[in-house]
Amino acid sequence: MINTHLSSQLSQFGSASIYEAQGAIGALDSGIKPLSHTMQVFGPAFTVDIRPGDNLMLHYALLHIQPGDVLVVDAKRFTEAGPWGDILTEQAISKGVAGLIINGSVRDAQAIKTLGFPVFCRGLSIKGTAKKQPGKINIPLCIGDAVINPGDYIFGDEDGVVAVSPQNLAAVLKATQERENTEAQYREKIKQGSNTVDLLGLRDTLNKLKLA
């Protein structure tokens, strides 16, 4: 329950702020985007490793996923088939799944957006998939530079997706709050005539580069 409370508080901040506050780590690569710019998602990761062009393990995963979980799927960057569509979305909603992050494509985009289910993906493809190949659930996945472990907390919005380990939630929340407060002060000072070079202490660097 503590982690749920912390993650809910952290979800009030943008993914970029969370990423920076935790030391510029945990970001999935920028190729993974929300289907709609208004989509947001947060919750613990339920990880799934699937074979490109096959979605059997997604059907299997939805038998075991818990309400509030975010389905994080590694489809190996394969974008020439959509292993996720409107029917799986309906089932995910009925199970209380918080959203989908997939290192691959989806299809039935308009239906998914109408249903209001948060989906972050690498692309869209009208092509279907087989349902024959094995895979794995609840194992570490590597997407971009980020390693996502089962139970890591996922935060996604229009800027991108970031993962935070459960044991770091409290520290990252504190750091994010401090970062937001600092940036609020910067905005006020800029309105009063300050500039980013002085606020960020960039004068010495500019002098060294003879850019003063």
Describe this structure in words.
By secondary structure, the chain is of the alpha/beta class. The protein has 2 domains: 2-171, Ribonuclease E inhibitor RraA/RraA-like (Glucose Oxidase, domain 1, 3-Layer(bba) Sandwich), CATH 3.50.30.40; 180-208, no CATH class. It is 35% helix and 22% strand. It has 8 helices and 12 strands. The chain has helices at 2-10, 15-21, 56-64, 86-95, 109-115, 169-191, 196-199, 203-208, and strands at residues 33-34, 41-49, 70-74, 99-103, 105-106, 119-121, 123-124, 136-137, 141-143, 146-148, 153-157, 160-164. Strands 1, 2, 3, 4, 6, 8, 11 and 12 form an 8-stranded mixed β-sheet that branches. Helix 1 (2-10) packs parallel to helix 6 (169-191) and helix 2 (15-21) crosses helix 6. The radius of gyration is 19 Å and the shape is elongated. The mean pLDDT is 97.
Features:
212 residues; Glucose Oxidase, domain 1; 2 domains; eight-stranded mixed β-sheet
Offer a concise description of the structure.
With 212 residues, this protein is of the alpha/beta class.
Itemize the secondary structure elements and their pairings.
Layout: H1 2-10, H2 15-21, E1 33-34, E2 41-49, H3 56-64, E3 70-74, H4 86-95, E4 99-103, E5 105-106, H5 109-115, E6 119-121, E7 123-124, E8 136-137, E9 141-143, E10 146-148, E11 153-157, E12 160-164, H6 169-191, H7 196-199, H8 203-208
Parallel strand pairs: 2-3, 3-4, 4-6, 5-7
Antiparallel strand pairs: 1-6, 2-8, 2-11, 9-10, 11-12
Helix pairs in contact: 1-6, 2-6
Count of folded domains: 2
Q: Strand-residue fraction? A: 15-25%
Which class best fits the helix and strand makeup?
alpha/beta
Shape: elongated
Radius of gyration: 19 Å
CATH architecture of the largest domain: 3-Layer(bba) Sandwich
What CATH calls the topology of the largest domain is: Glucose Oxidase, domain 1
Give the SSE order as H and E letters. HHEEHEHEEHEEEEEEEHHH
The first-level CATH class of the largest domain is given as Alpha Beta
Q: Give a short account of the largest sheet.
A: 8 strands, mixed
Q: What's the total count of β strands?
A: 12
Q: Considering DSSP H and I runs of 4 or more, what fraction of the residues is helical?
A: 25-40%
Q: Which residues sit in consecutive blocks of at least 5 with pLDDT less than 50? A: none
Give the termini separation. 52 Å
Q: Round the mean pLDDT to the nearest integer and report it.
A: 97
CATH superfamily of the largest domain: Ribonuclease E inhibitor RraA/RraA-like
Number of separate helices:
8
